[in-house]
Amino acid sequence: MSDPIWTYDRFEPGQSFGEVTIPLDTERTDGWAAIYGPPTGPDAPDGMIVAGMMEAYIRAIQPRPKGNVHASQTLAFTGATVPLGAKVTYHVSVRDKALKKGRNWVTFSLRAEAAGQELMTGEILSIWAA
Fold first, then answer.
1. Collapsing DSSP states into helix, strand and coil, what is residue 96?
2. What Gene3D superfamilies does the annotation carry (predicted)?
């Protein structure tokens, strides 16, 4: 039996979706290099950390309804770096939800860390379709 689809009514502020670990492995580095060129040093570019954040967000909340809108996001980097090949752990949770003009708005909080060091925090504001 499959899990029920995530609907607006199921979200609660403070609700955690746990951790998703994304390895900054050769496959991800090669994908990054194909689009942006190879990283210029031994550490992952900030954009690769953000790409991992989006992957973690999508993987953590499944199954999802079709038609969600990624309305905005905010990011705050700590300045800490992580070497290519390391694993980054993302923590995904619900910060807030609100009904506005008949739309389901959900704010998700995300935090990235590697080797016990915080790399970045972020929020994703979504209009949830169901």
1. strand
2. Hotdog Thioesterase (3.10.129.10)
How do the pLDDT tens digits run along the chain, 130 residues long?
A: 567 999 999 999 999 999 999 999 999 999 999 999 999 999 999 999 999 999 999 999 999 999 999 999 999 999 999 999 999 999 999 999 999 999 999 999 999 999 999 999 999 999 999 9
C-alpha 22/C-alpha 90 separation (Å) is 8
Residues 123 and 110: beta-carbon distance below 8 Å? yes
3-class secondary structure, 3: coil
Q: Can you give the residue range of the structural domain that contains 13?
A: 8-128
Q: Does residue 2 belong to any structural domain of this protein?
A: no
Q: How many domains does the chain have?
A: 1
Q: What span, in angstroms and rounded, lies between the C-alpha atoms of 49 and 111?
A: 10
What residues form DSSP beta bridges with 88? 22
Q: Give the domain CATH number at 106.
A: 3.10.129.10
